[in-house]
Amino acid sequence: PILYSYFRSSCSWRVRIALALKGISYDLVPVNLLKDGGQQFSAEFKAVNPMQQVPALKIDGIILSQSLAIIHYLEDTRPDPRLLPQDPKKRAQARMVADHVVSGIQPLQNLSILKQMGEKKLEWAQNCIASGFQALEQILQRTAGHYCVGDEVSVADLCLVPQVFNAERYNVDMGPYPTITRINKALLELEAFKVSHPSRQPDTPAELRA
């Protein structure tokens, strides 16, 4: 497999966690979202992913983009360890939490949106994340065990950790979100979350390395 990734992309990090959890080795092709006006806009990368976004994964003779589509494909083809609970209710909850982040928070504060916000980009990012986390905190108080949904790592956790990383980057006050904070701390102690961390990637700038 070949993963097209950017070290600080939260969407790429989700996929890196999934690959690590499932023990899938891969080659990494860095796509710098800031350098050269954004390497994602190159003709070469547009041929890989017409949406000009990371991540993209070449695997089993196909190219997949969109982090959840990639994770679900890995789940279908390499189901051990599973990232979707077997219980239908917990499975739905895991998907709900994942979608809450992937659709309801992250797109509102991604790079392309923040560029358009100009001087207000920090305030905008903080407001978008805080609004989403207020709802997510309430949801997780109902669904969480050790992790987002019960005591098994699920796709929900793969989405939560990168979003908390973004929140901390944008100086969001995490005080009102004790459940999110507790789960995030527990997940960051797991090896798959450590090795996939933005501070430990081949394309991580020297000053940001762990």
Describe the structure.
- The structure is a single chain.
- With 210 residues, the chain is α+β, with helices and mostly antiparallel strands.
- The chain folds into two domains: 80 residues, Glutaredoxin (3-Layer(aba) Sandwich), CATH 3.40.30; 106 residues, Up-down Bundle (Glutathione S-transferase Yfyf (Class Pi), Chain A, domain 2).
- 50% of the residues lie in helices and 8% in strands.
- The protein has a four-stranded mixed sheet, with helices on one face.
- α1 links the parallel β1 and β2.
- α1 packs parallel to α3 and α7 packs across α8.
- The radius of gyration is 16 Å and the shape is globular.
- 38% of the residues are buried.
Rounded to an integer in angstroms, the radius of gyration calculated over CA atoms is 16 Å
Structural class: alpha+beta
Mean pLDDT: 96
Uncertain regions spanning at least 5 consecutive residues: none
Tell me the major beta sheet.
4 strands, mixed
As a percent range, the share of helical residues equals 40-55%
Question: How much of the residues is beta strand, in percent?
Answer: 5-15%
| Oligomer state of the chains in this structure | single chain
Domain GST C-terminal: 87-206
Catalytic activity: RX + glutathione = an S-substituted glutathione + a halide anion + H(+); 4-maleylacetoacetate = 4-fumarylacetoacetate
InterPro entries: Glutathione-S-Trfase_C-like, Glutathione-S-Trfase_C_sf, Glutathione_S-Trfase, Glutathione_S-Trfase_N, GST_C, GST_Zeta, GST_Zeta_C, GST_Zeta_N
Main location: cytoplasm
